[in-house]
Amino acid sequence: MHKRMQDKRTQHKRIHVHAIAALVVAAATALAPAVGAAADENKVTISVAAKAGKPVGGVQVYKLKRDDDVTLTVVADRADQLHVHGYEIERELAADQPQTVKFIAKRTGRFSVELHKSGATLAVLEIYPN
User: Fold this and answer.
1) 86 shares its domain with 105
2) Structural domain boundaries, residue 21
3) 8, containing H or E segment
4) CA–CA dist 41, 113 (Å, integer)
5) Residue 65 maps to which CATH number?
6) 3-class DSSP string for 75-125
7) Do 92 and 75 have their domain in common?
8) Whole-angstrom distance, CA of residue 23 vs CA of residue 77
């Protein structure tokens, strides 16, 4: 009978360990970069697609740090003009042709990435001090 109680206690400990592991994985996932973004220390890659003048999957907010090396790629199904506010980056977009811009996130704050002709906000960049 003593052995049976030990087995139950061991089983309960395993359940608790699995529950804690699941919480750790959930927390790590929540703190990971937003969908469409990949980070490697100071390098951040963001990919955004637009269809019918709107961002596919909705407007995403990307949290960056000052001095991050940003690569932003946008592809739209219509010709338009890409504008990264606050950085005064503007590029013409041809339909279905990816356009990539690179910049260093020197300014902190909240900046919109927009399509000028359609007036749509594609993404928001939140750049925080180090």
Assistant:
1) yes
2) 1-32
3) helix 2-31
4) 22
5) 2.60.40.420
6) EECCCEEEEECCCCEEEEECCCCCEEEEEECCCCEEEEEEECCCCCEEEEE
7) yes
8) 40
Taking the alpha carbons of 4, 6, 10, 13 in that order, is the dihedral positive or negative?
positive
CA dist., res. 125 & res. 82, Å (int): 14
User: Is the pTM here over 0.85, yes or no?
Assistant: no
Q: Which of 40, 42, 38 is nearest to 72 (CA)?
A: 38
Span 35-79, pLDDT tens digits: 455 556 799 999 999 999 999 999 999 999 999 999 999 999 999
Phi, psi of 92 (to 5 degrees): -75, 140
Residues 88 and 71 reside in one and the same domain? yes
Report the number of distinct structural domains present in the chain: 2
